[in-house]
Each structure stands twice: as C-alpha cells, then as structure tokens.
Design a protein that fits this description.
CATH class: Mainly Alpha
Number of helices: 17
CATH superfamily: MFS general substrate transporter like domains
CATH topology: Growth Hormone, Chain: A
Number of domains: 1
Helix content: over 70%
Oligomer: single chain
CATH architecture: Up-down Bundle
Radius of gyration: 21 Å
Length: 412
C-alpha cells in the first residue's frame, strides 16, 4: 500500500502564509513606532532615547531565538518549531499588554522576540526545503512584496489603536495574529522536512551543522553583509518616531510618511522578482549596495550644509531610494547565503539569521542612540554600513581553499 502524497498549498496561499508568518517580526516592531512616546511617558521613562529599548530588546530576543529554532526545526520538523514560536510570541505580547512596569515590558518584548524567531527561521527553512537558487530568490521577492505591506500599514494601525483605545491594544492585536498564523500553518501547511532528513537534537550534531555553515565563506559573508544592511533599518526604526514625528513635527502624520517610504521596499521586491532571473542575484544586489553607499555619502554633505536638518522632502526622497536599494538586497542576500547549505537549512537559517541580527543590533543600536536632534548620525551610519557591506560581499565572493574542498567533497 502506497502512502498518498501530502496535499500542496497553491502558490498564492503558500506565499500569503509565509509572508504573514515572517511579518510577525515587522508587525511587532512597526506597529509600536507611533506609541513609543506614549509608552515612555506612561511607564515613567526619563531619557528620550531609552524608548528605543522597546525595539532593541525585541531584536536581542530574536537573535537568541534564531539559534534555538533552527536546530529545533531540523530535529522535530518545521511545524512543531513554528507552533512553539508562535505560542511564545503570544505569551510575551500578553505580558507587555498587562504590565505597569517598563522593565517588565522590556522582558516581555525580549520574550516575544525570542518567540518571533520561530516563524522567521522556519518560514525561510520551509522555502529552502522546496526551492533553491534563483527560484528561491524569486519566491522570496514575492514574499517580501506581500511582507512589505506590514511596515506600510502597521504604524497606521498603531496610530488608530492610540486614537480609540491605548498602546496596550497593539499587543492584543499581536496575540490575535500569532494565533491566526498558528491555526493556518497547523491546519493547512504540510510538513516539508521528511523524517529521514531530520537531525538529532543534541549538542554535537547541532554544533557540526552550525560549524559547517560558519565555515562556508558565502554563507558567513552574506549573513554579515545582510547584518550591516539591516543595521540601516535598525538605526532608522529606532529613530524614526523621534526624527519624523518630533524633529520634523509630523505628529499624527508620521505613519503616512513612514508608509510612503516603506512602500519603496515593496516596489523593489516586485522589481527584483521580475529581474533576478535575467540579471542574477549578485548583479542586482551589488548595484543596489553601490548606489545606496554613494548616495549616503553625498547626502551627508548635503545635510551638513543644512546643519543636520535638511528639507523634509529631500530627506524622504533620499530614504526612499535607500529603502528601494535595500529591497533589492534582502531577498537576494538570504538566497545566496542559503544556497550552499540547503542540506542543513534549519541550522543554516539559524546561523544566517542570528549572525545578521546580532550584527545589525550591535552596530545599529549605538548609532540610533547617538541621535542628537539631527539626521547626521543616521546618514553617516548608513554611509559607513553600506560601504562596509560592499567590502564584505567582495570577500565572500572570493573563492577560498575551504570552499573548494567543501565543494569537492559534496561532488564526490
């Protein structure tokens, strides 16, 4: 008697499910942006820049969680790891929803970030289980196109919550979304990791798998470059509410400007999905890096001429171009980094995700906390991070002895 093949989701439903699962990270961050000032005031935060810790602690939890959920998904299957992560997201968000202490809120945010690592890592691993190379890059670009709707609309939803309820309702919404994904993924998505391909959940095999990923130049190089590029987003997300809502006096109009700039990421993902098959991942992302770095150097000089307060139109135009370039980078960098390590997709996704997030938080947080009421720390940080990413990519694409030996071993 033959075992029937598991049903497969349609391409549309699969993309929608993966995008929603991955969007929990962006949703947990972006929906909070309009509320940072209110949260800081209600919970007695004294330093203005301390409100950025609401984002930083989430990123730190995300970093640690990725090291857990990757090996866990390789050992127990994608569905169990996904379910555990979603439950932890809900618990952490509920802790934030009911707390009266800023310290407890930060603990809840770290816990929610730890849980959100599950959907993020498992979603990438599921895609890698089913796709490779340019096909994976194309699918990830389509996912990013849907995924980018979250940063476009999430701040507006947070603003609506502030108008009709309170910032606590934002966390309630995150709990609801976590359970929606839990039910959808559990009921509709077939397991993509066969039992015979699973790895034991023990320290030695996990260490070997992660060690293999860390010895793969392309994987480490592109994870590092992705961390530098995402550091740009960490800086921007940490300072956007202070810079746009307060420095430029946008107030309640802040979500509209944030959405406008975020939409350039979505446009870039659409463009990348159409062009990656023709030009290749490295060509598109390489040009995007160079344009972003060069423009940031030029705009820093322009901002200096305006004492760190350039016209709002010029600033938003510059950021829109940078975010468009980032949209050409994220999906391609993930696909390139995962390509040589598909046989250990869960552990490799953990290494790539944790390394890139750790780098982005370690570098982006100090730059964000250097905010001094001008755009100069932001623009200077963007110029440096993008320039460093160019150098790292050049190193990653230079073949080394270890990569040659690894390739020969796999060919044999």
């Amino acid at each position: 008697m033959t075992t029937p093949e598991p049903r497969r989701l349609s391409s549309f439903e699969f993309v929608a499910l993966v995008a929603l699962a991955m969007s929990l990270v962006a949703m947990s961050i972006d929906s909070m942006l309009p509320a940072l000032g209110v949260v800081a005031e209600e919970l007695g935060v004294t330093s203005d820049n301390d409100r950025q810790l609401v984002l930083t602690t989430f990123f730190l939890g995300l970093t640690l969680g990725q090291l857990v959920y990757g090996p866990l998904s390789d050992a127990t299957g994608r569905k169990r790891a996904m379910s555990l992560g979603l439950i932890v997201v809900a618990v952490g968000s509920m802790l934030c929803m009911f707390t009266r202490s800023f310290t407890v809120l930060l603990i809840g945010r770290a816990l929610a970030g730890f849980g959100a690592a599950g959907p993020r890592i498992v979603a990438v691993a599921v895609v890698r289980d089913l796709y490779a190379g340019r096909a994976m890059a194309r699918l990830m670009s389509i996912v990013m196109t849907a995924f980018i709707l979250v940063p476009i609309f999430a701040p507006s939803l947070g603003q609506v919550a502030l108008m009709f309820a309170s910032w606590r309702a934002i966390f309630g919404g995150l709990v609801v979304v976590a359970f929606v994904v839990l039910a959808w993924f559990g009921l509709r998505q077939p397991e993509t990791l066969a039992v015979e391909r699973r790895r034991p959940l023990s320290p030695l095999p996990i260490a070997r798998a992660m060690g293999e990923a860390l010895k793969t130049r392309v994987t480490v190089g592109y994870a590092t470059a992705a961390g530098l590029v995402f550091g740009v987003m960490v800086v921007y997300l940490g300072t956007a509410q202070q810079m746009l809502a307060e420095q430029y006096g946008l107030g309640e109009r802040f979500p509209l400007y944030f959405a406008g700039m975020a939409s350039s990421l979505g446009l870039a993902s659409i463009v990348n999905a159409r062009l990656v098959g023709r030009f290749g991942m490295r060509t598109l992302s390489g040009w995007a890096l160079r344009v972003s770095a060069g423009l940031s150097v030029v705009f820093f000089g322009y901002a200096l001429l305006h004492a760190g307060h350039p016209p709002l139109g010029a600033l938003t135009g510059y950021l829109a171009v940078v975010f468009f370039c980032n949209g050409l980078i994220f999906g391609n960098f993930n696909a390139i980094g995962m390509e040589p390590v598909g046989h250990i997709a869960g552990s490799a996704a953990a290494v790539v995700g944790a390394l890139s997030t750790l780098i982005s938080v370690a570098i982006g947080t100090p730059i964000g906390r250097a905010y001094d009421g001008t755009v100069l720390p932001l623009v200077a940080g963007l110029a440096v991070l993008m320039s460093l990413a160019i150098l790292v990519v050049r190193w990653a694409d230079r073949p080394g002895p270890a990569d040659h030996e690894l390739g020969m071993a796999r060919a044999a």
